[in-house]
């Protein structure tokens, strides 16, 4: 990502909080149970072991309107920071110097702890297999670190709103991975299920899909559960991945 702002040096295991409002207001510890992420819409956690990257994300996140930005330099301190502060959105690297692709395990742990958290993964390398695993684990989006600031802000805004965000070329590569594993996956779906999957591929939430189709939220939840069974996936993230793959392969015309 270009034009990173310099950041104070950090050491492995560090975690800190930065406020972007005019008056610094530290985040207090959570007592009496964790505050749900939906009640912290302007909070962000960034997990990366490069200080310059942390500084760049902090600067851009401030531009995007995040008031409180938590930072961590490894997955252990990242998980602890998330457990304490429960931010609405997490931006995490996938690869760490001392622990390889541990960002993938962090994504899974965060989603297990708080299913409503929205996660944007980023990395220097766009390996479609790794990106597919991040999506399967629960990430909603992926962006390359060497993408421009506008591309990062666009991905951040999409994931913040609960929409899927992938570079088009990468989405196509991810779709190709499973073409031989899941031949003609849409053949088992009803017309209504195809409608729902198509809307999911556009990044629409269950609530938005229900409004679009003039049905109840529960109808969409039940249909999604049936589609997961038909398509052999066991999570909403897996269903979203299939939807994105099918759009990238041209199954859903705009």
UniProtKB/TrEMBL annotation:
Record key words, sorted: DNA-binding, Phosphoprotein
Gene Ontology molecular function terms on file: DNA binding
HTH luxR-type domain segment(s): 182-247
Stretches assigned to the Response regulatory domain: 43-160
Record SMART domains: HTH_LUXR, REC
PROSITE patterns: HTH_LUXR_2, RESPONSE_REGULATORY
CDD domains linked: LuxR_C_like (cd06170), REC_NarL-like (cd17535)
Biological process according to GO: phosphorelay signal transduction system; regulation of DNA-templated transcription
Modified residues (4-aspartylphosphate): 93
Matching SUPFAM superfamilies: C-terminal effector domain of the bipartite response regulators (SSF46894), CheY-like (SSF52172)
Matching InterPro entries: CheY-like_superfamily, NreC/VraR/RcsB-like_REC, Sig_transdc_resp-reg_C-effctor, Sig_transdc_resp-reg_receiver, Tscrpt_reg_LuxR_C, WalR-like, WH-like_DNA-bd_sf
The name this protein goes by in its record: Two component transcriptional regulator, LuxR family
Taxonomic classification: Bacteria, Pseudomonadati, Pseudomonadota, Alphaproteobacteria, Hyphomicrobiales
């Amino acid at each position: 990502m270009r034009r990173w702002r310099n950041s104070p040096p950090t050491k492995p295991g560090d975690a800190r909080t930065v406020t972007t409002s005019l008056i610094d207001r530290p985040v207090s510890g959570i007592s009496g149970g964790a505050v749900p992420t939906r009640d912290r819409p302007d909070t962000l956690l960034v997990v990366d072991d490069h200080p310059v990257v942390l500084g760049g994300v902090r600067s851009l996140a401030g531009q995007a309107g995040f008031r409180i930005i938590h930072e961590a330099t490894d997955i252990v301190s990242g998980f602890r920071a998330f457990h304490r502060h429960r931010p609405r959105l997490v931006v995490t690297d996938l690869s760490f110097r001392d622990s390889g692709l541990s960002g993938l395990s962090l994504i899974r742990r965060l989603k297990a702890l708080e299913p409503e958290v929205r996660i944007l993964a980023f990395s220097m390398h766009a390996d479609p297999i790794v990106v597919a695993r991040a999506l399967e684990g629960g990430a909603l989006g992926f962006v390359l670190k060497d993408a421009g600031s506008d591309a990062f802000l666009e991905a951040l805004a999409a994931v913040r709103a609960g929409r899927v965000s992938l570079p088009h070329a990468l989405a196509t590569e991810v779709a190709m991975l499973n073409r031989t594993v899941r031949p003609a996956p849409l053949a088992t779906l009803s017309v209504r299920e195809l409608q729902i999957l198509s809307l999911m591929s556009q990044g629409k939430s269950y609530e938005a899909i229900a409004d679009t189709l003039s049905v109840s939220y529960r109808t969409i939840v039940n249909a999604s559960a049936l589609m997961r069974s038909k398509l052999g996936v066991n999570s909403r993230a897996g269903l979203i991945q299939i939807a994105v793959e099918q759009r990238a392969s041209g199954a859903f015309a705009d």
